[in-house]
Amino acid sequence: MLISHRAAASGDSLVYSFSFGDTTKYDKTLTADIDLATSPGSVQLASGETKNLAVGSRMRAVYTGSFPMTGGNEPKPDTTKMNAEKLHDNNYYTYVDFTTPTNVGASVKIDLQVIRKVNRIVVFGLGNIPQSFGLRPQAFSYYAGLDSNRQSRIFQEFNNIDSARHTAFISDAQPVRYLTFVIDKLDPKNSTVLSEFQIFGEGFVTEGNYVSKIDSTGTAKSNFAFVHLNADIPEGTTVGVEMRTGYTNVFDSARWSAWSAPVTFSSAAAAAAGGKLFVPEPRRYFQYRLRLYTGNLATPKVSSMKIVYQTSLVADSTSAVVSPQEVPVLSPVTLTYSIDAAFSGTSLGIDTVTIYTPSPSVVQAVRVAGAAVPYTFFPSPDRMTVAFPTAVTTTGRIDIVFATKLITGGDFPSEMVSRSAPWNPQSIDPVKNSYGTSWSIFTTGVPENPLVDVRVDPNPFTPNNDGRNDATVIDFSVANLVKAKPLSIRVFDLTGRKVRTVIETISGVNPFFGDPRTGGKGFLWDGRSDDGTVVRPGVYILQVALDSDNGGYVVSKPVVVAY
């Protein structure tokens, strides 16, 4: 049931409250990996002892010798046989190939992404069939630890005679995050082929979702403000709250929003203090989703929640459209953000509009009902804020013209504020269209790229020399080249000034995967500029560039330096 009461400290705000002792109020078809029985009155993660931890892991193959090669007149490394991410795709016919006899000591490095007491590991041969006997690793070891650089051996197989799979039972399970499978002996005449890993351990599932049934705030449309939780959130666990809102009491994708970005809490104190909701408003009906996560052996528990909202509205209805919705990549463009707003006699009026932007943007003009009006522009790297000297209260269109340059496409969500309730901005609704939403921008002109799976991890990273996340790893593969070409990795600030050249080299087809500190072939940026000083905290653009057959290819990734 909806339990609302006046919140004495919040003016005209109202509160939706719910206790999880009522187990009839959740959507059983959408809820997954949640336990409501073990701790009655609380939502917690389900047991993970039967969950395959390999599915959520990251894997990299590290070669000590030659790579598997393609055939043809000009053989080259076969990157499809070197991608260890295929070792947890539930397909026994995708595999990693270690050629003999040069790859004794080759390994598969596994990051579980979470801490677990691993007690069982299964490795499968090609196809999981007896005929793969000759392709098996003849002897191997598992190493594990909480640190990728410091691992100890937890299992050793001296003579593997299993033709299809091998199960390693770990008798003294200890908390670990990183695993390394090392080949100690190979068949001298055959390649060694691995097709799949399955990893099991003690603890809880990594992530679970609790989804409520659809509810409403009553008969009036509402402007949602904050969410608060009464929760136990141990270190290394989090609880996120997502919402979607609609105009009907039955979910309809045409009349309901998508799930909002999560409001995430990592401590009981933060959950009690609450967080701001950013959902399409005003709406009457809503549904919420709790996303519980653990990176260790503990689970968060949520016993109750409340959502603060208002029925006093900044505007009775709004919608936003940005045009054009297709722009050339990395080119200066001028866009118009149009807001259609409707007001009634009880509306509070719009004093400020904030538009969130994927790239720094500058407002050039503002019009209300087609006429230019005075305004104040407050710039920021990730948003534009426009303030009006007099509140807008007349139904019509507000046009905000701005200039920007996009590295990639993205969304431009927005919200409006009234001076009468500055604590509760009201989100502006997008219009659904063929692009997805009317505030989505897509970039054009990017050619087919031989730079595959460019990733930067961790991101953000913290180069403060504390031994944790002091550098970020750049890994990718180079494909579809006839001959070697110049390859560079450079870092730029948001003004376009180069701050660091990470590498300049010549490369043919090559998988640059993995942390170079642990034997991988990726590249490292330690957060320093070319003169050796640590850069300021902020957002930088990491650019991987390849001068290939079609005139050059570039992949740009934002990377955040934090302290």
What do you see in this structure?
The chain has 563 residues and is mainly β. The chain has four domains: 3-38 and 208-310, Jelly Rolls (Sandwich); 53-202, Galactose-binding domain-like (Jelly Rolls); 317-444, Immunoglobulin-like (Sandwich); 451-561, Sandwich (Immunoglobulin-like). The strands form ten sheets. Strands 1, 2, 3, 4, 16, 19 and 21 form a seven-stranded antiparallel β-sheet that branches. Strands 5, 7, 8, 9, 10, 11 and 13 form a seven-stranded antiparallel β-sheet that branches. Strands 14, 15, 17, 18 and 20 form a five-stranded antiparallel β-sheet that branches.
The fraction of residues in strands falls at over 45%
Q: What structural category do the secondary elements indicate?
A: mainly beta
Tell me the name of the CATH homologous superfamily of the largest domain: Galactose-binding domain-like
Mass-distribution shape:
globular
Give the mean pLDDT.
89
The CATH class of the largest domain is Mainly Beta
Question: How many domains would you count in the coordinates?
Answer: 4
Structure summary, number of beta strands? 44
Span of the ends, CA to CA? 45 Å
CATH topology name of the largest domain: Jelly Rolls
Query: Sheet with the most strands?
Result: 7 strands, antiparallel
Any idea what the CATH architecture of the largest domain is? Sandwich
Helix content: under 10%
Q: Using only CA atoms, what is the Rg?
A: 27 Å
**How many helices does DSSP assign?**
1
Are there runs of 5+ residues with pLDDT below 50, and where?
1-10
